[in-house]
Automatic annotation (TrEMBL):
Subcellular location: Membrane
Organism this protein belongs to: marine metagenome
Swiss-Prot/TrEMBL keywords: Membrane, Transmembrane, Transmembrane helix
Taxonomic lineage: unclassified sequences, metagenomes, ecological metagenomes
GO biological process, one term: cell wall organization
UniProt-recorded name of the protein: Penicillin-binding protein dimerisation domain-containing protein
Residues covered by the Penicillin-binding protein dimerisation domain: 59-169
InterPro entries per UniProt: Beta-lactam/transpept, PBP_dimer, PBP_dimer_sf
Cellular component terms (Gene Ontology): plasma membrane
UniProt main location, coarse: membrane
Length: 201
């Protein structure tokens, strides 16, 4: 019985190899794009979780005068963050945010053009700003709850109390000197009388 031989056309083989090679390239491209996007989302979520964890820690201790009058306390406020890499309509969104937040459009565009995957747009939103951001409906905008330090007597006693930065870290006065104690949530009673301070000032 005669043997049968399969005969392949060289051009057909070349075309076949090219198709296989092209298919592999396409598959790998989609694979790496998917991996990049997953990694990008994970990094952004990680940054968000860090902010949430920071704000879920023990509330910074309060400061009182010797009569028990409250000199420094905390309130909760929303801040606005974004992943610029996920924003397509940067110009339109910049216009909208500029009107809502009363910020310079170019400054917002610069932040939206960042190559980072987590950028603060504005800290300590007003209730009105927060509501308008929600109504805007942009899913890549994220409002995160933060703690803000306030001083009921404002400038009175400020040279003694000092102040904190945007991340609630003591920068001067009692806020800085007893930063570690206050960060543990412990309240502090000072020897000063705020009423006398007011009278002097």
């Amino acid at each position: 019985m005669p043997k049968k031989f399969l005969i392949f056309d060289i051009d057909d083989l070349k075309k076949f190899h090219k198709r296989v090679f092209f298919s592999i390239i396409v598959f790998l491209s989609f694979y790496f794009i998917a991996i990049f996007r997953i990694a990008d989302v994970m990094i952004f979520e990680s940054n968000v979780k860090k902010i949430i964890n920071i704000n879920e820690k023990i509330e910074r201790g309060k400061i009182y005068d010797r009569n028990g009058q409250l000199l420094a306390t905390n309130i909760s406020n929303y801040s606005l963050a974004v992943n610029p890499l996920k924003i397509n309509n940067k110009s339109i969104l910049s216009n909208q945010l500029s009107e809502i937040l009363f910020l310079d459009k170019k400054a917002i565009e610069k932040k939206l053009s960042s190559e980072k995957n987590f950028v603060w747009l504005k800290r300590n939103l007003s209730p009105k700003e927060h509501q308008k951001i929600i109504e805007l409906g942009e899913i890549q905008l994220h409002t995160l709850l933060e703690t803000k330090r306030i001083y009921p007597f404002q400038k009175n006693g400020a040279h003694v109390l000092g102040y904190v930065d945007i991340d609630n870290k003591g920068q001067a006065g009692v806020e800085r000197g007893l930063d570690e104690v206050l960060n543990k949530g412990e309240n502090i009673f000072l020897t000063i009388d705020i009423n006398l301070q007011n009278a002097v000032q």
